[in-house]
Amino acid sequence: MPDPIKNPKNKVIFQWVLLVLITGILAVSLYFFVGNFENLRLHGYIRAHIRRQIIGQKITSEQIRGWMTFRYVNLMFGLPPAYLQNTLGVKDGHYPNVSLDVLAKEQNLSSAQIVAKTSEAVKNFVSKPNP
């Protein structure tokens, strides 16, 4: 009985099936790795290395703007994920992926007011001595 893999047509089909299978396994593995990595980072087990300087400038709380999301502010200043949510009393279910301007509208405040409150909360956190 002839070996089916020695047939050139079957050999090519076998190679393609093997390639698709390996690619699928790699894609699924990568998907789960990225998902687990994000969960570990969000829960504080892994710290993201965010540069605190942009083109030689130190980032300050005065640079916070209304278009920024809470996730962005948390990352830029190294804040714990729920710090601003607890400090500012954010009830939005989309936190931290909600901008300061959206929160201002929800709380009937001006953008300048919510930016000032956020800036003050960031200053308070940053000025605390590290344990």
Describe this structure in words.
The protein is mainly alpha-helical. It has two domains: 4-42; 53-127. It is 56% helix and 3% strand. It has five helices and two strands. The chain has helices spanning 8-42, 70-77, 83-88, 100-106, 111-127, and strands at 53-54, 57-58. A two-stranded antiparallel sheet has the order 1-2. Helix 4 packs across helix 5. Mean pLDDT is 82; it is low at 50-56.
Which helices and strands, and how do they pair?
Blueprint: H1 8-42, E1 53-54, E2 57-58, H2 70-77, H3 83-88, H4 100-106, H5 111-127
Antiparallel strand pairs: 1-2
Tell me how many strands there are: 2
SSE arrangement, N to C: HEEHHHH
Question: How many domain regions?
Answer: 2
Shape: elongated
Name the beta content range: under 5%
Distance between the termini: 75 Å
Helix proportion: 55-70%
Strand order in the largest sheet: 1-2
Round the Cα radius of gyration to an integer and report it: 24 Å
Low-confidence residue ranges: 50-56
Main sheet overview: 2 strands, antiparallel
By helix and strand content, what is the structural category? mainly alpha
* Count of alpha and pi helical runs: 5
Mean pLDDT: 82
Any key phrases for this structure?
single chain, 131 residues, mainly alpha, 2 domains, two-stranded antiparallel ribbon, elongated
Brief characterization of the structure:
This protein has two domains: 4-42; 53-127. Helices cover 56% and strands 3% of the residues.
